[in-house]
Each structure stands twice: as C-alpha cells, then as structure tokens.
Amino acid sequence: MQNKPRFDRNSPEIKAYLEDVAQTFTREGTLIAFETCMPGMTVPIPLDESRITALDIIADGTIYGGTSGHQAHLIVACFRGLTGLVFDIGAVEGATQCAAVCCGAKGVVAFVNGPKGGRAVITKLVRLFGQDFIQEWGVRRPAIEDQGECAPGEAVVDAVAVASRKQVVGTTTGHVFALDIDAPKPRIVGEAPGKGKIAVGSRGGVFGRDEGDSLWRYDPERQALERRAVKLPAGDWSQPLGWAADPHDGLLYTADAQGQLFSFSEAGGFSAPLGRTMLKPVGPMAVTFDGRLFGFCGAEIAKMFCFDPQQREVTNLGVAASIIGRKRYGYVFGDAATGRDGELVFGENDNGGHLWLYFPRIKSRA
Q1: Strands 355-359 and 183-191: what pairing?
Q2: What is the pLDDT of residues 309-327, one digit of tens each?
Q3: Which of 175, 185, 244, 294 could form a disulfide with 151 if both were Cys (CB 3.0 to 4.6 A apart)?
C-alpha cells in the first residue's frame, strides 16, 4: 500500500486554493509601487510619517502630495523621461495630517492639521522632469512657508484648485474658505459643515456636503456660496463623500455608504444608481481618459474596482499588489489622481506608504 503524500498539488482543495490566489490580487492591468525616495540613493520617509493622504498633478505629469502621521511631509514625484523618483520636500512644522494639496502655475498650496489648527502652507514647484536622474542629479528643497489658519480653531477637511488653477476653495469643519494661489491668505466665504471631500463641477462650481441630504455650491467667479443647492439622490448618505472627475468633460462620480455609484453634472444633476461595489465604504477614485472609473472599496483590506460607463458594469479587480521593482501588497489608500498619459496614481495611506501607479488594461477593439 502506497501512502498518499500530505501535500497533493492535484487535490481539489489545493487547486481551489491556487485559483483563489490567482483571483485575489490585481486581476487586470499593472500596479507599480514606489517608495518615498530615489531607490538606492535616498532614504524613504519614516514609517510613521509616510501615510499618503493628498495628491495633485500638474500638466507635465509631475505629482505633488502630502503625508500624515507623526509629522506631515510634502512630496513631489515624476515618472517620465529620465526621471523616476519620489522626493521629500520636507516636513511641515507642527503638522500631523495633510488634508489636501493644490497646484498653481508657480507654486503649491498644502493644507495641514495639527496642534496649531488647520493651516495653509506654500512652497515652490520643484523641477524634476527634463533632468538626467540616471547619471547625475541634484534637487534643492524649497522653503515651506506658513500662511496661517484657514478658520480659527477648525481643522481643514479638503480643498481643490478651480479650473483656472489661480484660486483654491476649501472647507474646514464649519466653514468654506477661498484663497488666491499667488497670494495665499485664506479668507472665509461662508458657513457650511465639512463632511468629506469637495469637487469642481463640470461648469466650474465647487460642491461639498451640506446639512441633510444636500450639497452646497460655491461660485468662484461671483464668490457666492449657495447652501442646499443640490439634493442628493435616494441612498445611504451617512458617510463622508468622495469624488472623482472625468478629465474629458468634468463629469463627477461619487458613492453612498452602501457602495452605490452615481454620476453628477451641473447641467443634468445626479444619475440613477450606476452599480454597486463589492465592498463598502468606497475610497479614493479616479477616471482614466477612456471614461472608465477606477477606485478602491473596503475598510481595511481594500479591493480595486472598475466601473465601465459603456458597459454599465462594476468589475472586481482584486487586492492591490506590486510585483515590478518593489514587491508589496496595498491595503489602504488615501487619495487618487489621473496622470498625464491616462495612468492612475494612488497614495497609500499606511505605514511605509508608497506611491502607486496603475496602468489599466487597454480595451480590446470592438
């Protein structure tokens, strides 16, 4: 009688396990995780200071971001030409959280929270693209200048740059504020609760969660705040809002607390429910150039999803995993943005956080 080995690769149980592993992680496209440094040359941001919670991208593809943790840092990154690195601009004195980063033509405004309250800080743009970072390189750290509190005694919740990139609109826990990027002294424009992210609409208005199931709208040109301007559609709106904007036409996407996806335009209002994610809540999202929406859902071990507006279906893309260069799982993400060439950028909101680039699968020709 021949004894059967304890580990049988052909057993139904092992086959099921291997199939489960194959379907659990990054089912489609390619994710690449980058440390917060120039690998082999500089040291990453410390583990407990590297949770990436804010991102913005300028026209040449340079990525700016902010971290949260024991100290908040500002970072800049570029992955084009001969440039491939994440550079630590520096820690923001007295700040433990970066709520938002907004880029202008010449400078960057970041919004940070800490014992001194919610404040705006500015720094200059850092030129990374166009240099040879393979052979010889050097980067000067620009100064980070404090511009003061946005609203006395209140934390900053979020902020966005308007379409012109000359003005920023933001929200604290109790007010809406605005500032000019060239002269970034925050000024309060009205009272409104700060509940989650805010977004720029398809016609230039800025929208955020208001009391009840409604949105406020701020008009940057008229400098006017309209309370309860838009009613939210039927759904569970008990969680803070998140948004993603289509770079083609400004169409916005959001999700309720149960993972129901909706689109919103200033001309047409909210759509009917478009689909539901596999897990809840829905985290950061971004839209690539062909209109597909990608994001993460789930509280602790998030799964990536794709909503295809042409097919009107939500696809489970699995848990994030990077296998090129840095090998790493990605479980929690803090922000997302659309890159210059349609790639998607996600900031990892975890100790030792990495900057993740996602290159979606190219759709087959019909």
Answers
A1: unpaired
A2: 999 999 999 999 999 988 9
A3: 175
